[in-house]
Amino acid sequence: MAGDKCVRKADKKRIRAQNILFRDTGIKCTDEPRKYVMVANAGLATGLQQEQLLELSLPYGQIDGVLMLPGKSYSFIVFKDETCASKAYAAIHGKMKLNSTDSGPLYLAFTEKVPEINHSWNYDHKPPGLILLEHFVTEEEENSLLNSIDWNTTDSHLGQSLKHRKVKHYGYEFRYDTNNVDKDNPLSEGIPSECNFLLERLSARNCNILSSFPNQLTVNHYQPGQVFAGIPPHVDTHSAFEDPILSLSLGSPIVMEFRHKDGRTLPVLLPQRSLLVMSEEARYAWSHGITPRKMDIVPTPNGSLTIQHRGERVSFTFRCIRKGECNCIYHERCDSYQRNCSNIQIKNDALAERLESLHVHEVYEEIASHFSDTRHKPWPNVLSFVESLPLGSMLVDVGCGNGKYFGFTRGIFEIGCDRSLGLVKVCQDRGFEVFNCNCLSLPLRSNIADGCMSIAVIHHLATEERRVRAVKEMVRILRPGGRALIYVWAKDQERHKTQSSYLRQDRKNRRECDEQKHPVIQDNTNTNVISKDFPSLPVHTNRTQFQYQDLLVPWKLKPEQKSEVESRTKESSCEEVPTFYRYYHVFEEGELEQLCQSVEGACVSRSYYDQGNWCVILEKQ
After folding, report:
1. What is the pLDDT of residue 520?
2. CB of 244 within 8 A of CB of 103?
3. Which site from 368, 375, 463, 587 is most exposed, i.e. has the minimal number of CB atoms within 10 Å?
4. Is-contact 50 66, C-beta < 8 A?
5. Residues 542 and 532: beta-carbon distance below 8 Å
6. Cβ–Cβ under 8 Å, residues 620 and 602
7. CA 582, CA 530: separation in Å to the nearest integer?
8. Whole-angstrom Cα distance, residue 44 to residue 611?
9. Which ranges of 93-244 would DSSP assign to H, the alpha helix?
10. CB-based contact 113:34 (threshold 8 Å)
11. Which helix (H) or strand (E) holds 381?
12. DSSP for residue 535
């Protein structure tokens, strides 16, 4: 009786999982054995890794694939044939449980097919510029290299114990706190002579990519108990090292993952005693790292999959110190390019007007409807300022957008203005008193407003003089004793180890993309293509920390807004959603306060940081 009860329970769970699968993917299950098997209670949402599922399934036959969908609590196993799948079904369904999950036994079902997604174990492709030379050293040379490293050194510059590995540097010390090297401070110990074969061996393998012998070597030693930690994805600092970078894998094979900013991830299996050469795009534009786990999924010679347990590993990474700055074309990851861009200043007023026209005014006219749809909930501190005004006060909102701060407080007279005709129309349709104007010249009499606010506006002005002029206009229309609230974006979006809502939004976007089975794409395109009038302006990667003060920030329209824009521009694309680029000057700490204090007749009564914004309340004297 107990056995029948377990069978009935397993069948109920299986049927429920089948219904969820059909709802999510349209894929039907079948009672007839198939080589495709869905596994419920075993997915990314339950914390499962592909390696664990593969290890569980291999005893029942050859595996051709393991599929896991983002955000789902089920996964798929593709067996070689129906016989292997039937054996697994009989042994696992309702009977087995993975130790890492607390969601009960695994429930299996045969399916007609599996979802069509990119297989993360596809080892057939490599980033452009990546070269893998297998069997680069012999076993004897491997032992010689491993024995050449003295890990007992007392020199802190030569040997370090990091959280998950031991590290030793030769030639120059790599500083993990700055991700760079001190080019003027070479180490006393040069690269071991056991490495002298490098250039000759490269030439023998028809890989003449080094003009000189490397002068910097970093050796990483992953000891037993540390081999599961991995290395976070990173790009070796452009300004620190020349192209290429070479990494020799000794002791144990491992899988390294390369990631592109467009969402592509390519795994590369590094066999024992192999040399990896990262050059050109692979070196400059793709990050590389090692995912923390106990084992890797690797292909077999017959094209199926198996698991490979990680062991003790030592890597020798050879680099050439760069003299001067990097001048590569991969600007989105180049610290030299970004550093040069960070000091950009637009001093010509006519040029500033041109920039604001192209990358502020015209953009907001195009995105007005979508922008308004994203602005609903008022910020509490701004609303508190509005509610603090006395009964009968007059409030002017300069750059009012869609008027999201209007209508909350009775007994005050609210008027707004905005440069965007599209946003002005949104406000007027909502019954608000709003007019169109430029914040640099408010068509209002002096000394008429009890309160004035400008939320996320003056950071769109391209020179300090124009930003000061905007504040002067707000002070002019205030009556003596009147107060103004000003918000601008802060360059620092993470203070006191707390991320701003702007950075936290990235996690929400990624979850939504996962649920929709679309990759997250970060837009960091070459600005020479985006803005020919302003080629030196860098383009920000959305929802990340700001690297420089003057920049362009992408805005992607939703698909439903896309057709509206296309109808105006007579452009059509079935694939791409239009992207617009807004100019911003993001503020350093104290910069807004200093700007306001420079305005005659204004006194800053409060300065604070609020969710990624620098904020000032000033009073007219």
Report:
1. 28
2. no
3. 375
4. yes
5. no
6. yes
7. 11
8. 31
9. 139-147, 198-204
10. no
11. helix 380-387
12. T
Backbone angles phi, psi at 361, to 5 degrees: -65, -50
Output DSSP code: residue 164. S
229 φ, ψ (degrees, to nearest 5): -75, -45
What pLDDT was estimated at residue 320?
Answer: 95
**Number of CB atoms found within 10 A of residue 347's CB:** 10
Q: Exposed/middle/buried for 404, CB within 10 Å: 0-12, 13-18, 19+? A: buried
- Full DSSP string of 288-315: EEE---SEEEEE-TTS-EEEEE---EEE
Residue with the two structure tokens 């007019």 = 435
Residues 254 and 271: their CA atoms lie apart, in Å, by 7
| pLDDT score for 560 | 57
Please say whether the beta carbons of 234 and 289 come within 8 A.
yes
Phi, psi of 490 (to 5 degrees): -95, 140
Q: Tokens 């890492």 appear where?
A: 100
Per residue in 14-47, pLDDT (tens digit) is: 788 788 888 888 888 888 999 999 888 887 667 6
Q: Which residues contact 344 (CB under 8 A, 6 or more apart)?
A: 536, 537, 548, 550
Burial of 299 from C-beta contacts in 10 A (0-12 / 13-18 / 19+): middle
Question: pLDDT at position 423, please?
Answer: 96
CA distance 259 to 238: 17
68: tokens are 């896991």
pLDDT at 161: 54
**pLDDT value, residue 483:** 98
Amino acid at 593: E
* CA–CA separation, 47 and 65 (whole Å): 19
- Positions in the chain short of pLDDT 70: 1-10, 44-45, 47, 70-71, 99-103, 117-122, 153-164, 223-229, 302-305, 341-345, 347, 496-536, 558-577
Helix ranges (H only) for 243-379 are: 280-284, 335-341, 349-356, 362-373
Burial 104-121 (b: 16+ CB within 10 A, else e): ebbbbbbbeebeeeeeeb
Q: At what angle do helices 559-569 and 362-373 cross, to 10 degrees?
A: 150
**Rounded Cα gap, residues 468 and 446, in angstroms:** 17
Q: Report yes or no: 477 and 453 within 8 Å, Cβ to Cβ.
A: no
What is the Cα–Cα distance from 422 to 364, expressed in whole angstroms? 8
